[in-house]
Specification:
This protein is mostly helical. The protein contains four helices and no strands. Helix 1 packs across helix 2 and helix 1 crosses helix 3. It is flat, with a radius of gyration of 20 Å. The longest helix has 59 residues. The N and C termini lie far apart (45 Å).
Length: 138
């Protein structure tokens, strides 16, 4: 894994985990043990889905830019299908609070995307100075 990819992954996993723990506490306070379990499961789902996607894209980036784009699109499609299967599977579940689960997934997914965006904005931009590339003085 490239260092910038590791920085991106770390920059998203850490805040998502911290807020996930907070979501478990809020779930416990608002919906009891079922709410805490729902928030914990939602945290695991979001971190796992986004981490696997980041690792796949990082691996594909070593091959080529086209492969990286294909991996990003494929991982997105797989995530959408997996979420559809997961939502269908938990439709009638009564062991945890599905409303807390849903809101936690939405909140943590948005947080993950925002954290990745923050990491990208903190990078130093590559600036190409054409005057220093070739000295064209006669």
């Amino acid at each position: 894994m490239h260092t910038s990819d590791a920085r991106m992954l770390r920059g998203a996993v850490i805040p998502t985990s911290v807020v996930g723990v907070g979501a478990v506490v809020i779930g416990l306070l608002t919906a009891g043990a079922k709410g805490a379990l729902a928030a914990a499961l939602a945290s695991v789902v979001v971190i796992a889905f986004f981490s696997v996607s980041a690792l796949v894209v990082s691996w594909a980036s070593r091959l080529s830019a086209q492969t990286m784009m294909l991996a990003a699109l494929a991982s997105y499609a797989v995530k959408i299908l997996a979420v559809m299967v997961l939502v269908t599977a938990i439709d009638g579940v009564s062991i945890f609070n599905t409303q807390v689960f849903g809101w936690t997934v939405i909140g943590l997914a948005l947080l993950w995307i925002g954290a990745e965006f923050r990491v990208v904005l903190q990078r130093r931009p590559y600036i190409d100075d054409p005057e220093n590339v070739l000295d064209r003085s006669p």
